[in-house]
Amino acid sequence: MKNKYLFTIVIANYNHGIFIEDAIKSVLNQSFKNYELFVVDAKSTDNSVEVIKKYECKIDWWVSEVDTGQSNAFNKGFSRANGKFLLWLNADDILLPNSLKKAADEIEKNKSVEWFVANTISFDVNGLITKCVNGPSWHRFLFKNAPITVYGPTSIFSKKIFDELGCFDESLNYCMDTDLWYRFKNAGYCFKRIHFYFWGLRVHEDSKTSHAFFGKKSTHFLEESKKIKIKNKIVFKKKNLLYQKIFKIINGNYFKSFLDTKKNMGKHISNL
């Protein structure tokens, strides 16, 4: 059956009532409207459900019930997908303006591609931009034995390959996305880089990924990272890690990130 929408977007939430309205509005305010929006709430105890209900006439489906974690929430949402391509958004982050239009344009120009990724802007709890990150385009040699540079919700992948490769591993709470990228790669899929900022990553101390920004050591993250490398038979060789850094220098990724950060640092994310 032909897909009803081009995109299915799932927002996963647990007790991020202070942020989730921004996440929902960032989707509803997109200029491209050929999408369905699902919100999967894990029985939040704050005001999250109240906020969700405020927008329920514009949300295609939502639920608030106990789940086993973010991976379970994503699988629950994507199992109902009527879209050709899937993407998710964390409730404390935002989808940047015109992201869906840019993605749709790239999909139209690259009809055989099943996986697209874009770039990321980080901002603080006051909405001020702190960093811009540009990733490299796909290079088979580059990613053979070095990390796949993909940032969570900047990834847009077809329902076809998501279903083919078995959804998210629900035993994972931190590295479920990286595990999925490894499985895509091992199945022979490669991404097409969209040189546009899609994901607005809100950096705050209650974030699950705060350890990456505040110098905290996350034992669970390190354990999961090791687990998925073994599971997917991934070995990072030191020389390949060096090659990847050199590639980013030659390709201008670091320089472009530096210039964009310098240009936008301190601006409010809403002014993009």
General description of the model:
The protein is of the alpha/beta class and 272 residues long. It has a single domain (5-271), classed as Spore Coat Polysaccharide Biosynthesis Protein SpsA, Chain A, CATH 3.90.550.10. Helices cover 34% and strands 22% of the residues. The chain contains nine helices and nine strands. Strands 1, 2, 3, 4, 5, 6, 7, 8 and 9 form a nine-stranded mixed β-sheet that branches. Helix 2 links the parallel strand 2 and strand 3 (61-64). The longest helix is centred in the C-terminal third of the chain and has 14 residues, at 238-251. It is globular. The mean pLDDT is 90.
What are the defining features of this structure?
Spore Coat Polysaccharide Biosynthesis Protein SpsA, Chain A; alpha/beta; 9-stranded mixed sheet; about 270 residues; single chain; 9 helices
Give the second-level CATH assignment, the architecture.
Alpha-Beta Complex
Radius of gyration: 18 Å
Low-confidence stretches: none
Total helical segments: 9
What's the domain count? 1
Major beta sheet summary: 9 strands, mixed
Bin the strand percentage.
15-25%
Distance between the termini: 38 Å
Order of helices and strands: EHEHEHEEHEEEHHEHHH
CATH fold assignment:
Spore Coat Polysaccharide Biosynthesis Protein SpsA, Chain A
pLDDT averaged over residues: 90
Relevant CATH superfamily? Spore Coat Polysaccharide Biosynthesis Protein SpsA, Chain A
Give a count of the beta strands, DSSP E runs of length 2 or more: 9
What structural class do you assign from the helix and strand content? alpha/beta
Report helical residue fraction: 25-40%
CATH class: Alpha Beta
- Rough shape? globular
